[in-house]
Amino acid sequence: MTAFSIFTSPSPYILQRRLYHSSSSSINLQDSLMKNCKVGVFWMQRLRPFSLDRRRRRTLICAVNQDAEEAFKKTVEVDRLIDTLRDATPKELDKLVVENVLAFNEGFWIRLAARTDTCKSEDDKKDYEELAISIMSIVDRLVHKTKEKIESSTDVLKGILKPVIDDVEEIAWPPRNPEALILMEKEITQREQEGQLDEGFLSEINAQLRQAKEDGDKPGLEAMLQKVLQLYASKVLSKRSYAKKGEEVLKTEQFLETIIKAHEEEWNKLLINGLTIGKGEVSPEEFSAVAKKRIERTLIRTEGGSYQQRVLTEYLKGIQSRAEEIVQVLQGKPR
């Protein structure tokens, strides 16, 4: 994380339009699920026995033989899932569909359609058709619930950014009004206490950041979203302190926590005044050790691969990296 300069960001209209968009990663999941459901409808309705001329059959057999074992394994897995779904009660079916939602791809629907088409009795065929309808209905409900959650996360982000968005033609970062940043920080504190800053919220910011970087002409928006993540990380990490061991105050831990609570723009001054290479009492080696230990603690206490884990560890690594840069500068070493 680097210090932010003053950038000119997009007009309020563009920003508001961007914030009304859902998380792209979740949208991709929704689109994929709906597309696969449509594929399922197509194959359930249209798949029929077919014949091949001898030359095409021979070519097809050769192609299949190249990867026959892998194809067989996949077919067995799909058949096992279909059998499990078919034997499940309505309550069990809901749970199974949610747990295996990514398995309902084009291959699944083709296989289900093929099994439906080769049924020897109309009753069995009807069972498969009803199963397909039930799965599509559950997936549809899941998509709508996901969409509602994304919209909620978008509203939370819009509420946090509202203090720094005014009606002027261009939005500058940092905000022209210093009070706006204070209000934004208060908004983050309140929503964090209410439990609104969850994985969906972090996913939304990640999607907005990725889109802003891809556009390449929204540095102000990037800086604004990065600031939200920094404030979030600061609030969450500050909830747990390691600065006391019994009655003893661990000065290095306390120094790290002081920086964690501070704005990124204040890090340089704090590090210079706190490290022994500058004006302080904490050696660079001691500070590096406690920063590394805090990162390890964060990795243990957060869910692996989650957005929260990524945001918190990147924030701590940003502090660690800034300290190393300060040390190099004060030692006169080239960066």
Automatic annotation (TrEMBL):
Domain of life: Eukaryota
Name the UniProt record assigns to this protein: Laminin subunit alpha-1
Source organism per UniProt: Quillaja saponaria
